[in-house]
Amino acid sequence: MSEQYGAPSPADGPTTPGTAAVRPDAVRAARTPPSEPVTVPDGAAASRPRARVSPGRTKVGGAWIGLILGAVVLVFLLVFILQNLDPARVQFLGMEGTLPLGIWLLFAAIAGVLLLAIPGLGRMVQWRRAGRSGRRRP
């Protein structure tokens, strides 16, 4: 392909419509402005893996996203508690207490999370034990 303005050269083959398939590198070269040289990799360069521009998703990036989302949830929780400061009396199994409504609802949410987390933790322990016993066998 000729270097000037990304125009095809006679060596590129037929140029009449419908006589040849459009090559992706020819389309890219046609869109390239004249100030940028067109580079076509040779066979060795084409077979080498390309360098990644961005690292993609990483564990550290996931930790930062989790930290930011956790902070946003805590801010909403704080606003919720501060807006529900009316005292509420709760009775449960003969016990009685008076705290702000927002605090009682926070306790209820924590209890719900624990009810979901404890069985999940037990299942993870079972998987870990099963994985260890599977590795010991020759």
Mean pLDDT: 75
**SSE succession:** HHHEEH
Largest sheet: 2 strands, antiparallel
- Total helices: the number is 4
The tally of strands reads: 2
Overall geometric form: elongated
Tell me the helix content: 40-55%
Query: Beta-strand level of the residues, as a percent range?
Result: 5-15%
Uncertain stretches: none
Strand order, main sheet: write it out: 1-2
N-to-C terminal Cα separation, in Å? 61 Å
* Structural class label: mainly alpha
Cα-atom radius of gyration = 32 Å
How do the strands and helices of this protein lay out in sequence?
Layout: H1 24-31, H2 43-47, H3 59-83, E1 87-92, E2 95-100, H4 101-136
Antiparallel strand pairs: 1-2
Helix pairs in contact: 3-4
Word description of this protein:
With 138 residues, the chain is mainly alpha-helical. The protein is built from four helices and two strands, in the order αααββα. A two-stranded antiparallel ribbon has the order 1-2. Strand 1 (87-92) and strand 2 form a beta hairpin. Helix 3 runs antiparallel to helix 4 (101-136). The chain is elongated. The mean pLDDT is 75.
Summarize the structure.
The protein is mainly α.
Record keyword descriptors for this entry:
single chain, mainly alpha, two-stranded antiparallel ribbon, 4 helices, 2 strands
